[in-house]
Amino acid sequence: MAFDLEEYLRTAFRDKLRLQTVPTCDAAMLLPSTRLLQKRREVAEVEQALQSQREEFRQRMERLAQRRQQLGQREEELQHVVLKFDAFLKASAARQERALRRAGEARAAGQGAETTRLCQELEGLLQLRERGAQHLRSLRGFEDYLQGVLARTGQFQDIASMLAHFGALVEMRAALAQQAEAGQEQLARGRALLRQYQEEASSQLLRTEDELTQLHARLEAAHHDVLQ
């Protein structure tokens, strides 16, 4: 960077001298003191230009340094963000792995529980089938009995029609029993009404007897008064 600055200043000084050089014919006509003053003025102008160039270059270098510092800070911030994001990705991957492991364990436990439930249900169904088979074997005697009744009666085609006939008889008997029960209830209500009428008639008879007793007493009292 120092080499570039030196080369830049040398080039600028050379260009400044080239632009401000007095033509040969004019320089020959000037006095030595005048030429010396002119050279000094030219050197001062060149020095001022060089100083201005130095200041501009210094300011540019400061801006570059500030920019480099800002870029370094930005790079550190980006690196910090990258590290945080990397840590977040690792934590997220770890959480996902734990969730998958727990899900696998829960799935395995659920499958074990489902298997146990299915085994229990199957055992219950087997027990139910066994009880049904035992009940069916216990009904074989009734089937033989119904077959004998069907053969003896000779008026039914099969056991189903015979059972349907007996079912109709049972329903008819239930209906007759219900009618009889209704008749009994009606008879009970009639008896209760009759007792009520009897009680009312008895009460009326008692009141009438009381009135007759009172009238008889009054009649005797009147007869006694007449005799007196």
Description:
The protein is mainly α and about 230 residues long. The chain has 2 domains: about 35-155; about 155-225. Helices cover about 95% and strands about 0% of the residues. The chain contains 4 helices and no strands. Helix 1 packs across helix 3. The longest helix has about 120 residues, at about 30-155. About 0% of the residues are buried. Residues about 20-25 have low confidence and may be disordered. One of its GO terms (cellular component) is cytoskeleton. Keywords: Coiled coil. It holds the Pfam family DUF4200.
The number of domains is 2
> Helical segment tally?
4
For the CA atoms, what is the radius of gyration?
Answer: 68 Å
Poorly predicted regions are: 19-25
Strand % is under 5%
Total strand segments:
0
**Quaternary structure:** single chain
| Category from helices, strands and their pairing | mainly alpha
In whole angstroms, the N-to-C terminal distance is: 175 Å
- How do the helices and strands follow one another from N- to C-terminus? HHHH
Q: Describe the biggest sheet?
A: none
Helix content: over 70%
Categorize the overall geometry: elongated
Summary tags:
CFAP_domain-containing, 228 residues, mainly alpha
Task: Explain briefly what this protein structure is.
The chain is mostly helical. Helix content is 95%, strand content 0%.
Indicate the topology.
Elements: H1 2-20, H2 24-29, H3 32-153, H4 159-227
Keywords: Coiled coil
Pfam families: DUF4200
InterPro entries: CFAP_domain-containing, DUF4200
